[in-house]
Structure to design on (536 residues):
Protein backbone atom coordinates (compact mmCIF):
# COMPACT_ATOMS: atom_id res chain seq x y z
CA UNK A 1 0.00 0.00 0.00
CA UNK A 2 1.28 3.44 -0.92
CA UNK A 3 0.38 6.56 0.99
CA UNK A 4 -0.70 8.38 -2.22
CA UNK A 5 -3.41 5.82 -2.80
CA UNK A 6 -4.42 5.98 0.85
CA UNK A 7 -5.65 9.58 0.57
CA UNK A 8 -8.19 8.62 -2.10
CA UNK A 9 -9.79 5.85 -0.06
CA UNK A 10 -12.07 6.08 2.96
CA UNK A 11 -11.42 4.06 6.12
CA UNK A 12 -14.15 1.52 6.93
CA UNK A 13 -15.14 3.34 10.13
CA UNK A 14 -16.47 6.21 8.00
CA UNK A 15 -19.14 4.08 6.39
CA UNK A 16 -21.92 5.65 8.46
CA UNK A 17 -23.34 2.23 9.42
CA UNK A 18 -25.45 2.37 12.56
CA UNK A 19 -24.72 6.06 13.04
CA UNK A 20 -28.13 7.08 14.46
CA UNK A 21 -28.89 9.38 11.48
CA UNK A 22 -25.47 10.98 11.58
CA UNK A 23 -25.28 11.64 15.33
CA UNK A 24 -22.61 9.03 16.11
CA UNK A 25 -19.65 9.03 13.73
CA UNK A 26 -17.51 6.26 15.20
CA UNK A 27 -16.35 4.31 18.24
CA UNK A 28 -12.70 3.74 19.09
CA UNK A 29 -10.92 1.39 21.50
CA UNK A 30 -7.28 1.80 22.48
CA UNK A 31 -5.04 -0.41 24.60
CA UNK A 32 -1.64 0.59 26.01
CA UNK A 33 0.83 -2.30 26.37
CA UNK A 34 4.52 -2.68 27.13
CA UNK A 35 7.08 -5.43 26.82
CA UNK A 36 8.43 -6.47 30.21
CA UNK A 37 12.01 -6.86 29.03
CA UNK A 38 12.57 -3.35 27.71
CA UNK A 39 12.66 0.08 29.38
CA UNK A 40 9.81 2.49 28.66
CA UNK A 41 10.04 5.33 26.13
CA UNK A 42 12.02 7.80 28.28
CA UNK A 43 14.79 5.24 28.95
CA UNK A 44 14.89 3.06 25.85
CA UNK A 45 17.83 3.07 23.41
CA UNK A 46 17.43 3.18 19.65
CA UNK A 47 18.74 -0.40 19.35
CA UNK A 48 16.19 -1.59 21.90
CA UNK A 49 13.45 0.25 20.03
CA UNK A 50 14.37 -1.72 16.93
CA UNK A 51 14.17 -4.98 18.91
CA UNK A 52 10.69 -4.02 20.11
CA UNK A 53 9.62 -3.32 16.53
CA UNK A 54 11.04 -6.66 15.35
CA UNK A 55 9.28 -8.58 18.14
CA UNK A 56 5.94 -6.90 17.48
CA UNK A 57 6.13 -7.32 13.71
CA UNK A 58 7.02 -10.99 14.14
CA UNK A 59 4.03 -11.45 16.46
CA UNK A 60 1.77 -9.63 14.02
CA UNK A 61 2.90 -11.84 11.12
CA UNK A 62 1.55 -14.93 12.84
CA UNK A 63 -1.66 -13.21 13.95
CA UNK A 64 -4.99 -13.66 12.26
CA UNK A 65 -6.01 -10.01 12.12
CA UNK A 66 -2.71 -8.31 11.23
CA UNK A 67 -0.87 -10.82 9.04
CA UNK A 68 -1.48 -8.77 5.88
CA UNK A 69 -1.17 -5.37 7.54
CA UNK A 70 1.21 -2.68 6.26
CA UNK A 71 4.02 -1.30 8.41
CA UNK A 72 5.32 2.25 8.00
CA UNK A 73 8.47 3.21 9.87
CA UNK A 74 8.34 6.94 10.64
CA UNK A 75 11.88 7.36 9.33
CA UNK A 76 10.81 6.49 5.76
CA UNK A 77 7.99 9.05 5.74
CA UNK A 78 8.31 12.78 5.22
CA UNK A 79 6.58 15.28 7.50
CA UNK A 80 3.45 15.61 5.38
CA UNK A 81 3.01 11.86 5.01
CA UNK A 82 3.11 11.52 8.79
CA UNK A 83 0.48 14.25 9.13
CA UNK A 84 -1.73 12.37 6.67
CA UNK A 85 -1.63 9.40 9.06
CA UNK A 86 -2.46 11.71 11.97
CA UNK A 87 -5.43 13.16 10.07
CA UNK A 88 -6.69 9.64 9.41
CA UNK A 89 -6.44 8.84 13.16
CA UNK A 90 -3.92 6.08 12.45
CA UNK A 91 -1.16 7.65 14.53
CA UNK A 92 -0.87 10.29 17.23
CA UNK A 93 0.98 13.61 16.80
CA UNK A 94 3.46 12.25 19.36
CA UNK A 95 4.37 9.29 17.17
CA UNK A 96 4.72 11.62 14.17
CA UNK A 97 7.00 14.10 15.93
CA UNK A 98 9.17 12.17 18.40
CA UNK A 99 12.67 10.96 17.57
CA UNK A 100 13.85 7.35 17.51
CA UNK A 101 12.79 4.11 15.84
CA UNK A 102 9.03 3.99 15.71
CA UNK A 103 6.22 3.20 13.34
CA UNK A 104 2.69 2.06 12.73
CA UNK A 105 1.13 -1.13 11.49
CA UNK A 106 -2.39 -1.00 10.11
CA UNK A 107 -4.74 -3.19 8.14
CA UNK A 108 -6.25 -2.53 4.72
CA UNK A 109 -9.53 -0.97 5.86
CA UNK A 110 -7.80 1.00 8.66
CA UNK A 111 -10.04 -0.53 11.32
CA UNK A 112 -7.05 -1.87 13.27
CA UNK A 113 -3.71 -0.26 13.95
CA UNK A 114 -0.72 -0.70 16.23
CA UNK A 115 1.61 2.18 17.01
CA UNK A 116 5.03 0.91 18.03
CA UNK A 117 7.28 2.93 20.38
CA UNK A 118 4.90 5.76 21.11
CA UNK A 119 4.59 6.63 24.81
CA UNK A 120 4.13 2.89 25.37
CA UNK A 121 5.80 0.14 23.35
CA UNK A 122 2.43 -0.76 21.90
CA UNK A 123 -0.71 1.26 21.37
CA UNK A 124 -3.40 -0.95 19.85
CA UNK A 125 -6.38 0.73 18.25
CA UNK A 126 -9.66 -0.49 16.75
CA UNK A 127 -12.24 1.85 15.20
CA UNK A 128 -15.74 0.90 14.13
CA UNK A 129 -18.47 2.94 12.45
CA UNK A 130 -21.42 4.53 14.26
CA UNK A 131 -22.51 3.11 17.59
CA UNK A 132 -20.76 -0.20 17.03
CA UNK A 133 -18.47 0.12 20.03
CA UNK A 134 -18.90 -3.58 20.76
CA UNK A 135 -17.30 -4.41 17.41
CA UNK A 136 -14.28 -2.22 18.12
CA UNK A 137 -13.97 -3.71 21.60
CA UNK A 138 -14.18 -7.30 20.33
CA UNK A 139 -11.60 -6.56 17.63
CA UNK A 140 -9.14 -4.97 20.04
CA UNK A 141 -9.46 -7.85 22.54
CA UNK A 142 -8.81 -10.41 19.80
CA UNK A 143 -5.75 -8.50 18.58
CA UNK A 144 -4.53 -8.04 22.17
CA UNK A 145 -4.72 -11.78 22.85
CA UNK A 146 -2.94 -12.65 19.63
CA UNK A 147 -0.07 -10.22 20.14
CA UNK A 148 0.34 -10.79 23.88
CA UNK A 149 0.58 -14.54 23.40
CA UNK A 150 3.73 -13.95 21.44
CA UNK A 151 5.51 -11.40 23.66
CA UNK A 152 6.35 -11.03 27.34
CA UNK A 153 3.98 -8.30 28.46
CA UNK A 154 4.53 -6.00 31.47
CA UNK A 155 1.72 -6.88 33.84
CA UNK A 156 1.11 -7.04 37.56
CA UNK A 157 -1.75 -9.13 38.97
CA UNK A 158 -2.59 -6.36 41.46
CA UNK A 159 -2.45 -3.25 39.27
CA UNK A 160 -2.87 -4.75 35.82
CA UNK A 161 -1.01 -3.66 32.70
CA UNK A 162 1.98 -1.46 33.44
CA UNK A 163 2.21 1.70 31.35
CA UNK A 164 4.66 4.56 31.07
CA UNK A 165 2.14 7.07 32.40
CA UNK A 166 0.18 6.18 35.54
CA UNK A 167 -2.99 7.60 33.96
CA UNK A 168 -3.16 4.46 31.76
CA UNK A 169 -2.19 1.80 34.31
CA UNK A 170 -4.57 -1.11 34.79
CA UNK A 171 -6.65 -1.95 31.77
CA UNK A 172 -4.70 0.48 29.56
CA UNK A 173 -8.05 0.94 27.87
CA UNK A 174 -9.35 4.17 26.47
CA UNK A 175 -12.77 3.80 24.86
CA UNK A 176 -14.22 6.73 23.01
CA UNK A 177 -17.15 7.71 20.87
CA UNK A 178 -17.17 10.54 18.33
CA UNK A 179 -20.49 12.36 18.25
CA UNK A 180 -22.05 15.20 16.27
CA UNK A 181 -24.13 17.25 18.71
CA UNK A 182 -25.12 20.48 16.92
CA UNK A 183 -28.57 20.91 18.47
CA UNK A 184 -27.21 20.62 22.01
CA UNK A 185 -24.71 23.35 21.14
CA UNK A 186 -27.41 25.56 19.56
CA UNK A 187 -29.74 25.21 22.56
CA UNK A 188 -26.76 25.89 24.86
CA UNK A 189 -27.39 22.66 26.76
CA UNK A 190 -23.92 21.31 26.03
CA UNK A 191 -22.36 22.90 29.11
CA UNK A 192 -24.80 21.05 31.35
CA UNK A 193 -24.12 17.81 29.51
CA UNK A 194 -20.36 18.24 29.89
CA UNK A 195 -20.77 18.83 33.60
CA UNK A 196 -22.74 15.62 33.98
CA UNK A 197 -20.16 13.65 32.03
CA UNK A 198 -17.22 14.81 34.11
CA UNK A 199 -19.04 13.59 37.21
CA UNK A 200 -19.21 10.17 35.58
CA UNK A 201 -15.42 10.26 35.02
CA UNK A 202 -15.78 10.67 31.29
CA UNK A 203 -13.99 13.45 29.45
CA UNK A 204 -14.92 15.34 26.33
CA UNK A 205 -12.63 16.86 23.73
CA UNK A 206 -12.50 17.86 20.08
CA UNK A 207 -12.19 15.55 17.12
CA UNK A 208 -8.41 15.67 16.85
CA UNK A 209 -7.87 14.71 20.47
CA UNK A 210 -5.70 16.47 22.95
CA UNK A 211 -6.01 20.22 22.96
CA UNK A 212 -8.23 20.46 19.90
CA UNK A 213 -11.42 22.50 20.01
CA UNK A 214 -14.77 20.99 19.26
CA UNK A 215 -14.68 22.13 15.62
CA UNK A 216 -17.85 21.42 13.69
CA UNK A 217 -19.80 20.42 16.83
CA UNK A 218 -17.92 17.11 16.97
CA UNK A 219 -17.22 15.78 20.44
CA UNK A 220 -15.07 12.87 21.49
CA UNK A 221 -16.18 11.31 24.77
CA UNK A 222 -13.89 8.87 26.53
CA UNK A 223 -13.36 7.14 29.86
CA UNK A 224 -10.90 8.64 32.28
CA UNK A 225 -10.04 5.96 34.81
CA UNK A 226 -8.27 2.76 33.77
CA UNK A 227 -7.98 1.14 37.20
CA UNK A 228 -10.75 -0.39 39.28
CA UNK A 229 -13.34 -1.08 36.61
CA UNK A 230 -13.35 -3.94 34.13
CA UNK A 231 -13.14 -3.36 30.39
CA UNK A 232 -16.70 -4.60 29.92
CA UNK A 233 -18.14 -2.27 32.52
CA UNK A 234 -16.37 0.71 30.91
CA UNK A 235 -17.77 -0.34 27.52
CA UNK A 236 -21.31 -0.70 28.86
CA UNK A 237 -21.07 2.66 30.60
CA UNK A 238 -19.88 4.39 27.43
CA UNK A 239 -22.62 2.79 25.34
CA UNK A 240 -25.19 3.85 27.92
CA UNK A 241 -23.89 7.42 27.85
CA UNK A 242 -23.92 7.36 24.04
CA UNK A 243 -27.58 6.30 23.97
CA UNK A 244 -28.41 8.99 26.47
CA UNK A 245 -26.64 11.68 24.46
CA UNK A 246 -28.41 10.54 21.27
CA UNK A 247 -31.66 11.01 23.18
CA UNK A 248 -30.69 14.49 24.42
CA UNK A 249 -29.57 15.52 20.94
CA UNK A 250 -32.80 14.27 19.36
CA UNK A 251 -34.86 16.12 22.00
CA UNK A 252 -32.93 19.32 21.30
CA UNK A 253 -33.42 18.81 17.55
CA UNK A 254 -37.16 18.30 18.08
CA UNK A 255 -37.56 21.47 20.09
CA UNK A 256 -35.51 23.46 17.57
CA UNK A 257 -37.59 22.28 14.63
CA UNK A 258 -40.80 22.87 16.57
CA UNK A 259 -39.87 26.41 17.58
CA UNK A 260 -37.89 27.53 14.57
CA UNK A 261 -38.33 25.24 11.58
CA UNK A 262 -37.85 28.11 9.13
CA UNK A 263 -34.61 29.31 10.68
CA UNK A 264 -33.27 25.76 10.82
CA UNK A 265 -33.98 25.15 7.15
CA UNK A 266 -32.46 28.49 6.27
CA UNK A 267 -29.28 27.72 8.23
CA UNK A 268 -28.92 24.32 6.59
CA UNK A 269 -29.55 25.52 3.02
CA UNK A 270 -27.30 28.56 3.40
CA UNK A 271 -24.51 26.23 4.52
CA UNK A 272 -25.22 23.96 1.58
CA UNK A 273 -25.21 26.92 -0.79
CA UNK A 274 -21.87 28.23 0.42
CA UNK A 275 -20.24 24.79 0.27
CA UNK A 276 -21.58 24.34 -3.29
CA UNK A 277 -20.34 27.70 -4.58
CA UNK A 278 -17.59 29.16 -2.41
CA UNK A 279 -14.12 29.69 -3.93
CA UNK A 280 -12.29 29.98 -0.62
CA UNK A 281 -12.98 27.87 2.46
CA UNK A 282 -10.93 27.95 5.65
CA UNK A 283 -10.83 24.78 7.68
CA UNK A 284 -12.88 26.32 10.48
CA UNK A 285 -15.58 27.67 8.17
CA UNK A 286 -15.75 24.38 6.30
CA UNK A 287 -16.20 22.36 9.50
CA UNK A 288 -19.01 24.61 10.70
CA UNK A 289 -20.82 24.51 7.35
CA UNK A 290 -20.38 20.76 7.11
CA UNK A 291 -21.93 20.46 10.56
CA UNK A 292 -24.99 22.41 9.42
CA UNK A 293 -25.38 20.21 6.34
CA UNK A 294 -24.96 17.08 8.46
CA UNK A 295 -27.68 18.37 10.77
CA UNK A 296 -29.81 18.97 7.66
CA UNK A 297 -29.32 15.31 6.69
CA UNK A 298 -30.19 14.12 10.21
CA UNK A 299 -33.40 16.17 10.15
CA UNK A 300 -34.31 15.11 6.62
CA UNK A 301 -34.08 18.69 5.32
CA UNK A 302 -31.34 17.63 2.89
CA UNK A 303 -31.76 14.27 1.18
CA UNK A 304 -29.48 12.03 -0.82
CA UNK A 305 -26.19 12.79 0.93
CA UNK A 306 -24.93 9.72 2.82
CA UNK A 307 -23.02 10.08 6.09
CA UNK A 308 -20.08 8.27 4.50
CA UNK A 309 -19.77 11.13 1.99
CA UNK A 310 -19.68 13.80 4.71
CA UNK A 311 -17.22 11.77 6.79
CA UNK A 312 -14.82 11.29 3.92
CA UNK A 313 -15.04 14.95 2.92
CA UNK A 314 -14.04 15.88 6.45
CA UNK A 315 -10.78 13.93 6.14
CA UNK A 316 -10.07 14.77 2.48
CA UNK A 317 -10.15 18.51 3.23
CA UNK A 318 -7.59 18.35 6.04
CA UNK A 319 -4.38 20.32 5.32
CA UNK A 320 -2.02 17.38 4.77
CA UNK A 321 -4.51 15.48 2.64
CA UNK A 322 -4.89 18.56 0.43
CA UNK A 323 -1.14 18.93 0.21
CA UNK A 324 -0.65 15.25 -0.65
CA UNK A 325 -3.34 15.56 -3.29
CA UNK A 326 -1.64 18.62 -4.79
CA UNK A 327 1.70 16.85 -4.78
CA UNK A 328 3.49 19.98 -3.55
CA UNK A 329 3.65 22.38 -0.64
CA UNK A 330 0.71 24.81 -0.34
CA UNK A 331 0.45 28.18 1.32
CA UNK A 332 -2.56 28.52 3.67
CA UNK A 333 -4.26 30.71 1.03
CA UNK A 334 -3.71 28.10 -1.69
CA UNK A 335 -5.02 25.44 0.65
CA UNK A 336 -8.27 27.32 1.22
CA UNK A 337 -8.72 27.64 -2.55
CA UNK A 338 -8.09 23.95 -3.10
CA UNK A 339 -10.40 23.02 -0.23
CA UNK A 340 -13.25 24.97 -1.83
CA UNK A 341 -12.48 23.40 -5.25
CA UNK A 342 -12.56 19.89 -3.79
CA UNK A 343 -15.80 20.47 -1.88
CA UNK A 344 -17.54 21.89 -4.98
CA UNK A 345 -16.35 19.02 -7.12
CA UNK A 346 -17.44 16.33 -4.63
CA UNK A 347 -20.81 17.95 -3.97
CA UNK A 348 -21.59 18.17 -7.69
CA UNK A 349 -20.72 14.46 -8.00
CA UNK A 350 -23.05 13.46 -5.19
CA UNK A 351 -25.83 15.61 -6.68
CA UNK A 352 -25.53 13.89 -10.05
CA UNK A 353 -25.40 10.37 -8.71
CA UNK B 1 -9.25 31.59 26.00
CA UNK B 2 -6.92 33.88 27.98
CA UNK B 3 -4.96 32.58 30.96
CA UNK B 4 -6.78 33.17 34.26
CA UNK B 5 -3.57 33.91 36.13
CA UNK B 6 -1.57 36.30 33.95
CA UNK B 7 -4.57 37.46 31.90
CA UNK B 8 -2.22 37.85 28.94
CA UNK B 9 -1.18 34.64 27.24
CA UNK B 10 -3.33 32.09 25.45
CA UNK B 11 -4.54 29.39 27.86
CA UNK B 12 -3.66 25.87 26.77
CA UNK B 13 -4.30 23.86 29.91
CA UNK B 14 -7.62 23.42 31.60
CA UNK B 15 -8.09 22.46 35.23
CA UNK B 16 -11.54 21.24 36.10
CA UNK B 17 -12.73 20.27 39.54
CA UNK B 18 -16.08 19.19 40.85
CA UNK B 19 -16.87 20.70 44.23
CA UNK B 20 -20.20 19.52 45.56
CA UNK B 21 -22.57 20.12 42.68
CA UNK B 22 -20.55 22.89 41.10
CA UNK B 23 -17.91 22.61 38.40
CA UNK B 24 -14.87 24.83 38.66
CA UNK B 25 -12.73 25.45 35.64
CA UNK B 26 -9.45 27.31 35.47
CA UNK B 27 -7.67 28.07 32.21
CA UNK B 28 -3.91 28.42 32.35
CA UNK B 29 -1.17 29.15 29.86
CA UNK B 30 1.90 26.90 29.63
CA UNK B 31 4.04 29.35 31.59
CA UNK B 32 1.69 29.92 34.50
CA UNK B 33 0.80 26.25 34.79
CA UNK B 34 4.50 25.46 35.11
CA UNK B 35 4.97 28.08 37.80
CA UNK B 36 1.88 26.90 39.64
CA UNK B 37 3.04 23.34 39.43
CA UNK B 38 6.21 24.23 41.32
CA UNK B 39 4.34 26.04 44.06
CA UNK B 40 1.43 24.50 45.87
CA UNK B 41 -1.99 24.30 44.24
CA UNK B 42 -3.04 26.79 41.56
CA UNK B 43 -3.86 29.86 43.62
CA UNK B 44 -7.42 30.31 42.41
CA UNK B 45 -8.27 26.67 43.02
CA UNK B 46 -6.56 26.53 46.39
CA UNK B 47 -9.86 25.90 48.12
CA UNK B 48 -10.45 22.80 46.06
CA UNK B 49 -9.23 19.55 47.64
CA UNK B 50 -6.40 18.27 45.50
CA UNK B 51 -7.86 14.78 45.39
CA UNK B 52 -10.94 16.07 43.60
CA UNK B 53 -8.81 18.18 41.35
CA UNK B 54 -6.73 15.21 40.30
CA UNK B 55 -9.72 13.00 39.67
CA UNK B 56 -11.54 15.60 37.65
CA UNK B 57 -8.76 16.68 35.38
CA UNK B 58 -9.05 15.67 31.79
CA UNK B 59 -6.84 12.85 30.58
CA UNK B 60 -4.35 15.06 28.82
CA UNK B 61 -3.89 17.64 31.52
CA UNK B 62 -3.43 14.84 34.00
CA UNK B 63 -0.32 13.75 32.19
CA UNK B 64 1.14 17.19 32.71
CA UNK B 65 -0.07 18.08 36.12
CA UNK B 66 -1.16 15.27 38.39
CA UNK B 67 2.21 13.69 38.36
CA UNK B 68 4.49 16.67 38.32
CA UNK B 69 2.26 18.94 40.30
CA UNK B 70 1.69 19.38 43.99
CA UNK B 71 -0.40 16.26 44.40
CA UNK B 72 2.51 13.89 44.61
CA UNK B 73 4.77 16.45 46.21
CA UNK B 74 4.23 15.91 49.92
CA UNK B 75 4.98 12.25 49.75
CA UNK B 76 7.77 11.98 47.26
CA UNK B 77 9.43 8.67 48.01
CA UNK B 78 13.16 8.18 47.95
CA UNK B 79 12.79 5.05 45.83
CA UNK B 80 15.39 4.22 43.22
CA UNK B 81 14.35 1.81 40.49
CA UNK B 82 16.80 -1.10 40.20
CA UNK B 83 15.62 -1.71 36.61
CA UNK B 84 16.34 1.66 35.02
CA UNK B 85 17.86 3.84 37.75
CA UNK B 86 14.99 6.31 37.83
CA UNK B 87 14.30 8.09 41.12
CA UNK B 88 10.84 9.08 42.32
CA UNK B 89 11.94 12.72 42.11
CA UNK B 90 12.84 12.27 38.46
CA UNK B 91 9.54 10.52 37.77
CA UNK B 92 7.73 13.50 39.26
CA UNK B 93 9.58 15.80 36.89
CA UNK B 94 9.01 13.89 33.66
CA UNK B 95 5.66 12.37 34.57
CA UNK B 96 6.56 9.06 32.97
CA UNK B 97 7.94 5.91 34.55
CA UNK B 98 11.22 4.51 33.24
CA UNK B 99 10.40 0.80 33.14
CA UNK B 100 7.96 -1.76 34.48
CA UNK B 101 10.06 -2.28 37.64
CA UNK B 102 9.46 1.34 38.67
CA UNK B 103 6.00 0.31 39.86
CA UNK B 104 7.52 -1.98 42.47
CA UNK B 105 10.37 0.38 43.32
CA UNK B 106 8.17 3.43 43.98
CA UNK B 107 5.82 1.37 46.16
CA UNK B 108 3.31 3.15 48.38
CA UNK B 109 3.60 6.73 47.02
CA UNK B 110 2.96 5.51 43.50
CA UNK B 111 0.03 3.39 44.64
CA UNK B 112 -1.45 6.40 46.40
CA UNK B 113 -0.99 8.40 43.21
CA UNK B 114 -2.78 5.70 41.20
CA UNK B 115 -5.62 5.79 43.68
CA UNK B 116 -5.91 9.56 43.37
CA UNK B 117 -5.96 9.39 39.58
CA UNK B 118 -8.34 6.47 39.17
CA UNK B 119 -10.19 6.29 42.47
CA UNK B 120 -8.77 2.79 42.89
CA UNK B 121 -5.41 1.08 42.94
CA UNK B 122 -6.59 -2.43 42.19
CA UNK B 123 -6.92 -3.80 38.68
CA UNK B 124 -10.16 -5.42 37.61
CA UNK B 125 -10.24 -6.98 34.19
CA UNK B 126 -8.20 -8.75 31.58
CA UNK B 127 -4.83 -10.33 32.16
CA UNK B 128 -2.06 -10.98 29.64
CA UNK B 129 -2.76 -14.59 28.69
CA UNK B 130 -6.18 -15.22 30.14
CA UNK B 131 -8.83 -13.59 27.99
CA UNK B 132 -11.88 -12.65 30.02
CA UNK B 133 -14.57 -15.25 29.34
CA UNK B 134 -17.90 -13.97 28.09
CA UNK B 135 -20.46 -14.17 30.89
CA UNK B 136 -23.05 -16.84 30.22
CA UNK B 137 -26.24 -16.31 32.10
CA UNK B 138 -27.33 -19.96 32.01
CA UNK B 139 -24.22 -21.07 33.85
CA UNK B 140 -24.26 -18.35 36.47
CA UNK B 141 -24.88 -19.45 40.00
CA UNK B 142 -27.86 -17.81 41.63
CA UNK B 143 -25.70 -15.91 44.10
CA UNK B 144 -24.24 -12.49 43.48
CA UNK B 145 -26.96 -10.24 44.82
CA UNK B 146 -26.32 -6.55 45.16
CA UNK B 147 -25.80 -6.92 48.88
CA UNK B 148 -23.05 -9.48 48.33
CA UNK B 149 -21.19 -7.16 46.02
CA UNK B 150 -21.58 -4.24 48.42
CA UNK B 151 -20.28 -6.29 51.32
CA UNK B 152 -17.33 -7.40 49.28
CA UNK B 153 -16.59 -3.84 48.26
CA UNK B 154 -16.58 -2.72 51.89
CA UNK B 155 -14.24 -5.60 52.73
CA UNK B 156 -12.07 -4.60 49.82
CA UNK B 157 -11.84 -1.01 51.03
CA UNK B 158 -10.89 -2.24 54.47
CA UNK B 159 -8.28 -4.60 53.11
CA UNK B 160 -6.75 -1.83 51.01
CA UNK B 161 -6.66 0.51 54.01
CA UNK B 162 -4.87 -2.18 55.96
CA UNK B 163 -2.52 -2.62 52.98
CA UNK B 164 -3.43 -6.32 52.95
CA UNK B 165 -3.08 -6.62 49.19
CA UNK B 166 -3.31 -10.35 49.00
CA UNK B 167 -6.75 -10.35 50.57
CA UNK B 168 -7.69 -7.27 48.53
CA UNK B 169 -6.73 -8.98 45.27
CA UNK B 170 -8.82 -11.97 46.21
CA UNK B 171 -11.82 -9.76 47.04
CA UNK B 172 -11.32 -7.84 43.82
CA UNK B 173 -11.50 -11.07 41.81
CA UNK B 174 -14.66 -12.13 43.61
CA UNK B 175 -16.28 -8.75 42.87
CA UNK B 176 -15.25 -9.05 39.25
CA UNK B 177 -16.83 -12.50 39.05
CA UNK B 178 -20.04 -11.20 40.60
CA UNK B 179 -20.10 -8.33 38.16
CA UNK B 180 -19.71 -10.64 35.19
CA UNK B 181 -22.44 -12.91 36.38
CA UNK B 182 -24.71 -9.96 36.92
CA UNK B 183 -24.10 -8.37 33.52
Amino acid sequence: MKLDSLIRTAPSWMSGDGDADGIVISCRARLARNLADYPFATRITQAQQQQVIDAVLAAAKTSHSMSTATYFGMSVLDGNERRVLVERHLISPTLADEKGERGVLFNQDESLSVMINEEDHLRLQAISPGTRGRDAFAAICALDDELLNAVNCAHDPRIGFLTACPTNTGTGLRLSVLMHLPALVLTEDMERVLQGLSQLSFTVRGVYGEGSNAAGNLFQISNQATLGASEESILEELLRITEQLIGYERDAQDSLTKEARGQMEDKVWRAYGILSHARILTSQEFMNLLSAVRLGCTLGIVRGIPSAFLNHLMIATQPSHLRADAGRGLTPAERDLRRADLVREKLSQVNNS
Amino acid sequence: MICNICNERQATIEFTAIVGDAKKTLHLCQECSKQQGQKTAPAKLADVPTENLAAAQTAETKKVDVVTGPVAGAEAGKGLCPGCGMTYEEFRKVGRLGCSQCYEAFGAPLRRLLKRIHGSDLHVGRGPKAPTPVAEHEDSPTGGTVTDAEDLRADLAAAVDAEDYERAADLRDRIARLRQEGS
